[in-house]
Design a protein that fits this description.
Number of helices: 2
Shape: flat
Order of helices and strands: HHEEE
Radius of gyration: 14 Å
Distance between the termini: 22 Å
Strand order of the largest sheet: 1-2-3
Helix content: 10-25%
Number of strands: 3
């Protein structure tokens, strides 16, 4: 994931492994709304503000018959 924010100009870009499950929590966070309990994704908003924001080391996903795992640098699909 790559993001841009005026506050990040001249700062380091870091690779993370977001997934589709992170889209809704991010939109809700940007709108100032709380994510419902049980939501599996994480908001990506912290990456717009901090270089050292914590995030999971890898994302596992499924699309119809295909599975995949990604760590922000590498992706394995089977």
């Amino acid at each position: 994931m790559a993001g841009w924010s005026p506050s990040r100009v001249g700062r380091t870009i870091r690779s993370v492994a977001p997934g589709l499950a992170d889209v809704m929590p991010t939109i809700l966070d940007l709108a100032g709304l709380a994510a419902p309990a049980g939501m599996t994704g994480s908001s990506l908003r912290p990456f717009l503000d901090r270089d050292d924001a914590p995030f999971r080391p890898a994302t596992i996903g499924r699309c119809e018959w295909q599975y995949g795992i990604a760590d922000g640098r590498w992706r394995l699909c089977w």
